[in-house]
């Protein structure tokens, strides 16, 4: 792997963690064919030298890429370029709902923003974000389509300071990624708590998702924390199970000697 040019080098003044920047650059090399399927990646040491990063940072980037399906690691042989299954994308690991589908898979994802404003937060969101009772915050409601089919309706609840940041981005117009915007501002997901339950479509939710009242849906709740264990996003999502379904992948427990903050992963996939 050649030394990166200035346009691709790691941004040392960005608040985005180095391992996420490296993972993004390797992911792009795989998706654009610079690294072909099955190509062996340089060793951890070679990557560390090329990108002027620590081996621990390189290892974390490779772990993330393996988690997402972009890299396959084989003991005593190294890491090899691969491609995530065409059927799936991460529910929310280090990426957002549809980022995996948009990047390198030619899936059409359309976002319609229904609401984006600072308002009093519901009690459940205040509790999840560990804010004082009666707090205001930023509410972002979006309807998402996948390949022309209504797929899900989501509501994100954000602390006021993060809401101000998001309101100044292109997220409220539907043209930007919330996850990417937060990550570049230094709010990378270090851990998350998620619940999944079966619910019946009712009222406005049924209308938005274009289904009959009583149609089975999946409801997902998630709260994300940064590396300081401060909650910065709480969201609720109603998913049409005839368009997508949820696959849960559970890995082996993280050894006590590691410092990884990786959450368990849920993966949302299209049938």
Number of domains: 2
CATH homologous superfamily identity of the largest domain: Chorismate lyase-like
What's the multimeric state?
Answer: single chain
Q: Which whole number gives the mean pLDDT?
A: 83
Enumerate the strands of the largest sheet in spatial order, edge to edge or round the barrel: 4-5-6-9-8-7
The CATH architecture designation of the largest domain is: 3-Layer(aba) Sandwich
Question: What gyration radius follows from the Cα positions, in whole Å?
Answer: 19 Å
What is the fold-level CATH name, i.e. the topology of the largest domain?
A: Chorismate lyase
Helix content: 10-25%
What is the tally of helical segments?
8
What does the overall shape look like? globular
Terminal CA distance: 37 Å
Q: Can you walk me through this structure?
A:
β5 (136-146) and β6 (149-158) form a beta hairpin. The protein has 271 residues and is of the alpha+beta class. It folds into 2 domains: 18-81, Orthogonal Bundle (Arc Repressor Mutant, subunit A), CATH 1.10.10; 88-269, 3-Layer(aba) Sandwich (Chorismate lyase). The protein is globular and about 55 Å long. The model is unreliable at 251-265 (pLDDT under 50). Helices cover 25% and strands 31% of the residues. The chain has a 6-stranded antiparallel beta sheet with strand order 4-5-6-9-8-7, with helices on one face. A 3-stranded antiparallel beta sheet has the order 3-11-10. It has a two-stranded antiparallel sheet with strand order 1-2.
């Amino acid at each position: 792997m050649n030394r990166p040019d200035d346009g691709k080098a790691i941004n040392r003044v960005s608040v985005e963690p180095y391992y996420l920047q490296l993972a993004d650059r390797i992911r792009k090399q795989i998706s654009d064919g610079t690294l072909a399927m099955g190509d062996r990646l340089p060793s951890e040491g070679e990557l560390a030298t090329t990108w002027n990063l620590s081996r621990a940072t390189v290892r974390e980037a490779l772990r993330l890429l393996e988690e997402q399906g972009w890299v396959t690691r084989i003991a005593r042989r190294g890491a090899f370029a691969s491609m995530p299954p065409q059927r799936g994308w991460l529910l929310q690991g280090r990426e957002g709902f549809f980022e995996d589908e948009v990047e390198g898979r030619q899936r059409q994802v359309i976002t319609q923003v229904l609401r984006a404003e600072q308002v009093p937060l519901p009690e459940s969101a205040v509790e999840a974000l560990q804010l004082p009772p009666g707090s205001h915050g930023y509410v972002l409601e979006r309807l998402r389509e996948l390949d022309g089919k209504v797929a899900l309706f989501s509501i994100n609840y954000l602390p006021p300071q993060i809401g101000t940041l998001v309101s100044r981005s292109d997220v409220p117009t539907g043209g930007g990624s919330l996850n990417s915007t937060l990550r570049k501002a230094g709010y990378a997901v270090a851990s998350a708590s998620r619940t999944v339950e079966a619910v019946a479509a009712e009222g406005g939710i049924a209308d938005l998702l274009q289904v009959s009242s009583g149609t089975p849906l999946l409801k997902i709740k998630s709260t994300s924390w940064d590396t300081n264990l401060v909650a910065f996003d709480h969201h609720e999502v109603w998913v049409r199970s005839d368009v997508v379904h949820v696959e849960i992948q559970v890995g082996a427990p993280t050894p006590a000697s590691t410092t990884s903050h990786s959450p368990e992963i849920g993966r949302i996939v299209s049938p």
